[in-house]
Amino acid sequence: MGEVLGEVVPLGIAVAASPFPIIPAVLLLFTARARASSLGLILGWTTGVMLAASVFVVLATVVERADEPPSWASWVRVGLGLLLIALGVRKWLTRNEASDEPAWMQSIDELTPRTAARLGFLLSAANPKVLMLTAAAGLAIGSAELATADIVLGLVIFTAIAASTITLPLVLNLVFGERILGPLGTVRQWLQRNNSAVMSVVVVVIGSYLLAKGVSGI
Question: Residue 204 and residue 212: Cα distance in Å, rounded?
Answer without folding.
Answer: 12
